[in-house]
# Entry
Amino acid sequence: MFSKQKPLWGKKKKLKSSYDVVLIGGGLHNLATAYYLAKEHGITDIAIIEKNYIGYGGAGRNTAIVRANQRTQHNVPLYKEALDLWPVLTKELDFNLMFNNCGNLNLLHSEAAMKAARMTIATAQFHGVESHLIDAKEAKKLVPSLNISDDITFPIHGAMFHPPGGIVRHDAVVWGLAKGAAQYGAEIHQQTEALAIGTKDGKVTSVTTSEGVINTKQVLISAGAYSAGLISGMLGIKLPISVLTIQAMVTQPLKPLLNHVVSSGAYHCYANQTLKGEIATGAHMDPWPNYTTLSTAHFIKHQAEALSEFLPCLKGLRFMRIWGGLADMTPDMAPILDGNDQFEGFFMNCGWGYFGFKSCSVAGKYMAEFMATNKCPDILKPFALKRYEEHKLMGETAALVNYSPDN
Amino acid sequence: MALTITCPICGKRNGYEFRFGGEEKGPRPVEKDLTPQSWCDYVHMNNCVAGVQEEWWFHKDGCGSWFSIYRDTTTNYEVEKMEVANNEQA
Ligand SMILES: Cc1cc2nc3c(=O)[nH]c(=O)nc-3n(C[C@H](O)[C@H](O)[C@H](O)COP(=O)(O)OP(=O)(O)OC[C@H]3O[C@@H](n4cnc5c(N)ncnc54)[C@H](O)[C@@H]3O)c2cc1C
Ligand SMILES: [Zn+2]
# Structure
């Protein structure tokens, strides 16, 4: 930020009074949307409006886990394409995204969880995504430090193993996409806050920002977890979203001992070892909506307890850093991608919860197609906001999500 | 401690004793003339205010009361109803 070199995405430009497309939020999804709008559809008169700096939100705070073993037939193909895109984007953007496809091991702690995993695995295999059910001994072979004894709170019955998933460096994705979009002419306006969206006769006409008014016919709000509040505040469109603080932390660096992403629903805990040797580990969300992004003693304790049960060799390690960000949760754990419905020219892409990193490329690609053609791509149709009133919830989670300490 | 909540019966307590019960959305809509849209509005839709909102809480590890408070979602602090009313007038 303070270096004399000009950033990868070019020098600061003066905000113009009109653009073909305005994208509100300088996170991964809008950077990807701008990149694909320009590259695939020749739309280059784009302003990305970012209140702080690109990567300020979830884009720079996530734990960078990528995978494609979701639950339902609408979600899996989207995440599969996203997973397949990492090597492609690395080449296209000419930027090392550090895709480490070390595989994900999802621990299962009951026979019921094993049964549910069988269904999830069948869905993945049907869609050509590699995923297997393994027993506790096989899991121990993959991760020798795993505690598979039955004297822990949630003994390990088996695991869902998904070899093609892993970790991507999140900052590199921000920088690479910003560079890619800027090369085609998209403008990134940092320190610029979107304040209002102007409409006339049901059509978008303008966006008011802290740096002036922009005339435009198309605007996309994809501001991570800030989206729902902005959309309701600016246009009065309410969304089925709850915004919660979610925390993550890293330990002191260690010699290599964990070469897969390990996660556990029962322990509400996931962990992987970074290339630097730190154990990066994420926790569950605050059980009540808030925008604080504060870290809490509650989660440091929770995390230490959970890790020392299923990876007991980590006992006594020190946490080096802890941070928080926001997750915008929907009741069916699936995102909302929609456009040209409530207002002509108004698009939204949000509700990704803690899945918005792994999906950013593909969401950007299809939102770009949606905006360029004004036709919703088939793959996005099931993600429309209307699904809630039609009671066509996605079923990514077996039961409606309830924000309480029980989940 | 990130959060304390004041229960009308037990007073100010640790927030983890409580369960969040949703944004205040007014009374349950009457069954007559109920549309999928108005039901969906009541069941699922939120304002997601970054600021003060009225919301429901349940004292699950306490007296079992359901009650509503005003809280600033950007700080987690409870706010007096009077303060909210004054702000609205200003
Ligand atoms: C701790 C943590 C761990 C996570 N782990 C994972 C993971 O392992 N895998 C995964 O897939 N996902 C993960 N996520 C989720 C993922 O990070 C988010 O879903 C995703 O980054 C959100 O999309 P985005 O990058 O486009 O938006 P963000 O990066 O959140 O960007 C939103 C931007 O909008 C800006 N903004 C807000 N208001 C305005 C305004 N009025 N005008 C202009 N700009 C505005 C903000 O400054 C911000 O920069 C995690 C999130 C967190 C917090
Ligand atoms: Zn009480």
In short: DSSP finds two helices and six strands in chain B. The two ends of chain B are 32 Å apart (CA to CA). The first strand of chain B starts at residue 4 and ends at 7.
